[in-house]
Amino acid sequence: MHLTAPAILLAARPHGETAVIARMLTEQSGVVAAYVAGGRGRLLRPVVIPGNIVQAEIRAKSDNQLPFARIELMTSRGPWLSEPLPAAAIAWITALTAAVLPERNAYPTLYTALGALLDAICSSDAARQWVEALAVYEALLLRELGYGGQRPAIADLGQALEILDRQEPLIARYLLADTRADVLAARQLLRQRLARMVE
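The chain above was modelled as a monomer; its predicted structure follows.
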């Protein structure tokens, strides 16, 4: 395996003293997990943040070997991690995507949609400008994995929040049934923060 492509960093787990195992979503190869040497070091720590867009060079000698990756920052989401709503949204959508997509299956529509959603979260003045896109992304994820129907029609913020509430049991039952509860906890934190907008 030899792949050089832009990737959305979804998750990074510590490995050894300074490395991480990074899960990245690429357009043509889907989710790829790779060993990133020095991922917790001073230079790469700000790069290995879920939501960041990186240029990844991924290599493996065989298909059953964990690939090695070199990554270079293209777009940082770091500035938004100090804002409660954007930080919660980025944490939720990256954790969900990392938890549910099988490795090395291409989902170009999801790659494009996730990139657009991250851009919306980080460029909007207020959460009400990206909540609809969040609901649509969750529905698209359900549909791409075989558990959903059509794109929801959303008229306003209240309807977007209702759709998010309706989708939570589907996500919990179909997508996250076999995963750790802390993934869904990220969504519940986000939903609590969104609820304050309509109080």
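The domain at 2-75 is CATH 2.40.50.140 (OB fold (Dihydrolipoamide Acetyltransferase, E2P)).
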